[in-house]
Design goal:
Layout: H1 3-34, H2 38-73, H3 81-114, H4 121-150, H5 157-180
Length: 189
């Protein structure tokens, strides 16, 4: 096994762990939400908070470090379009996770803890909003995986337009679903 092959294995394995675990959480949360299983949704939210620091962030950092080392060791150049797209997609998901998904998940966990460990109508609405926003992260991640597999160049105009259209449609859908989640009113005393 060469150093490059080892790095490629580490890179792919970390992607599988990061994307696979997150995708499973999204699917389980959608199932819990659609069946109105608030206990399952609360467990998934708790798991997500823990997994953010113990699995998602370390795996995503492993992906980028191995990718950088692959670019240095391999026949690749930093100005190749597919590398630029991959890094931009990674950066987008990392920043979204760090600045939107994790803080909102932590805020929901604090609400649940404050409310005696149960989901209230307000924290449930926030959880549903978080689930809707997480969808764009996974659209981005799957587009990055496609980018890494296909390695488009500037000559692949149709493919690049299709990828951009998928991302814009995913963003629009995620935002519309997040906005559609009703915010229950707080009881007044």
């Amino acid at each position: 096994m060469t150093w490059y092959e080892f790095l490629l294995f580490v890179h792919i394995a970390a992607v599988v762990i990061w994307v696979g675990a997150g995708f499973l959480l999204v699917v389980l949360a959608l199932r819990a939400d659609r069946t109105d299983d608030e206990d399952a949704l609360k467990r998934i939210l708790d798991d997500n908070v823990w997994l953010a620091t113990h699995l998602f962030i370390p795996a995503s950092l492993t992906v980028v470090v191995a990718g950088v080392l692959l670019t240095i060791d391999g026949p690749w150049e930093w100005d190749q379009l597919w590398i630029v797209i991959g890094l931009a997609g990674y950066l987008a998901t990392f920043v979204t996770g760090l600045t939107v998904l994790k803080p909102q998940g932590d805020r929901i966990a604090e609400m649940v803890a404050r409310d005696g460990g149960r989901l209230t109508p307000v924290s449930l609405a926030e959880a549903r909003r978080l689930l809707a926003l997480a969808r764009i992260d996974y659209v981005t991640l799957f587009l990055v995986i496609a980018d890494m597999a296909i390695k488009p160049t500037g000559d692949d105009t149709g493919l690049l337009i299709a990828m951009a259209a998928i991302w814009v449609a995913g963003l629009g859908y995620a935002i519309s679903r997040a906005r559609a989640v009703g915010q229950p009113r707080q009881a007044t005393t």
